[in-house]
Please model this.
Amino acid sequence: MSSLHNRVLPILLLFLLTLTSTLACAGEPGPGQDKETVPDSVVAAILGSVAESAPKEPSRSFSPRLSPQQQEAQPLNIAEMGYDWGSPEAPVRVLELSDFGCGYCRLFHQEIFPVLLEKYVEAGLVQWKFIPFVLGRFPNGLEASIAGECGGEQEMFFPLQGRLFGDQAGWKNSEDPFPFFAKLAEEEGLDVDRFDRCIEGGWRENQVRANIRLGRQLRVQGTPTFLIDGAPISGALPIDTFRDILDMALSQKGVTPPARG
Model:
């Protein structure tokens, strides 16, 4: 495709988004933030995050706690962040940042994503990277993100992710949500003793902080937020609108979108 076509796609995406209401859990913008602007270096890292060779499983085991100052000095390696669905050879890549405490994120994963998973991800057309993000507006959102990452430490992130969204009402306003998280972990077949040690020992706190830093760099002001081949969109959009956007991205790559109906 021509460079002109490459420049037109984000404009068309933004036009599409003006035709529908955005269902997103909003955050307060920081000084100088512009939600339609993504740093070029971050986009380049996302688009280059999948190696040409077979992907290697990132290490998700114990890592020592870092001070905030040490954490800020760590480089963000997007390829080793989050949790991936789909083929690394897929022509289109989606990066999603969602907060487990966000109602619209729950809506997206219960009602919209299952269709996208079947039609695009499992069909080898889209690789989807989910990064647990903490918007800072929801009770126990940080704690849920830590629990999700401790599920990922056992390579069991996705089963726990489904329960954290599905059972959101059970932990969101709890004074101590961790026993509830441990119950979910046990029901999903995780090693609960290891899960508890991960939480108590802060094994994944560094990763949670890195996820938050990435969201700041992406200027995330609401969740869910997506980057589709580097083009940012926000909100739990209607399924047909989301499919229109993915189909446009596939067509730009010369790939026939999946049939509807």
